[in-house]
Amino acid sequence: MGGTTPKFAFPYPSSTDVPDGATQIKALADRVEAVIDQPFCRLIHNAGSAVNLANAVWANWGTALLDNDGGWVYTAGTKELTVPVTGKYDVLFKCFLAHSGGMAAGCRRVRLQINAVTVLQAETVQYPSTVLPGYGWTVMVSDILRLTAGQKIIPAVFAENFSTSGPQIGQDASGAWGALTLHKRT
């Protein structure tokens, strides 16, 4: 009976195995395919409608799941993604927060929570209140995280210190609204 390699569990025959090239090559090919085809998804905020944020209140972010390989579950009401497979994931969350007027100096933040515990957070530096409407800030976090199947991932945004209309989850100059991308490492 053969064995498997320690890192990727690729099967190999032992020196005493009866040669069966077709079966052994098929087993190796199936394992290579499983290692290469890892869960991936991209959650976006739908283009077409900006969302005004409340002052100093975290707002869950995201409206549409794109590029889903079929394993991810998105719950629209709570804006949660459910992790399909345990492993290490490359995580990138970026969001454009548009200036909409009437804002004092303050910060803008993004965070990523897993099962209601913050694991990643970033914020802009303090900025002057003279930023023109239509401009804004892209805030981003990126890391490699070990995730467990069934965990709930919740991206959120935050803004503080504005007087009339709040900043918006909106489009930057290139038309980007931001995205949360998760891809399992091999």
How would you describe this structure to a colleague?
It contains one helix and 15 strands; from the N terminus they run ββαβββββββββββββ. With 186 residues, the protein is mostly beta strands. The protein has two domains: 3-36, no CATH class; 40-184, Jelly Rolls. The strands form three sheets. Strands 3, 4, 6, 9, 12, 14 and 15 form a seven-stranded antiparallel sheet that branches. The radius of gyration is 22 Å and the shape is elongated. The model has no long low-confidence stretch (mean pLDDT 76).
List keywords for this structure.
elongated; 7-stranded antiparallel β-sheet; 2 domains; single chain; Jelly Rolls; 186 residues; 41% strand; mainly beta; 6-stranded antiparallel β-sheet
Q: Which regions are unreliable across 5 or more consecutive residues at pLDDT < 50? A: none
Strand content: 35-45%
Examine the secondary-structure arrangement and name the CATH architecture of the largest domain: Sandwich
Q: Helical content, roughly?
A: under 10%
CATH topology of the largest domain: Jelly Rolls
Q: How many individual helices?
A: 1
Our Rg estimate from Cα atoms comes to: 22 Å
What's the average pLDDT?
Answer: 76
Write a brief structural summary:
The protein has one helix at 21-36; strands at residues 3-4, 11-12, 40-44, 51-52, 59-60, 64-66, 73-75, 80-82, 87-98, 108-114, 117-123, 136-147, 152-159, 168-169, 178-184.
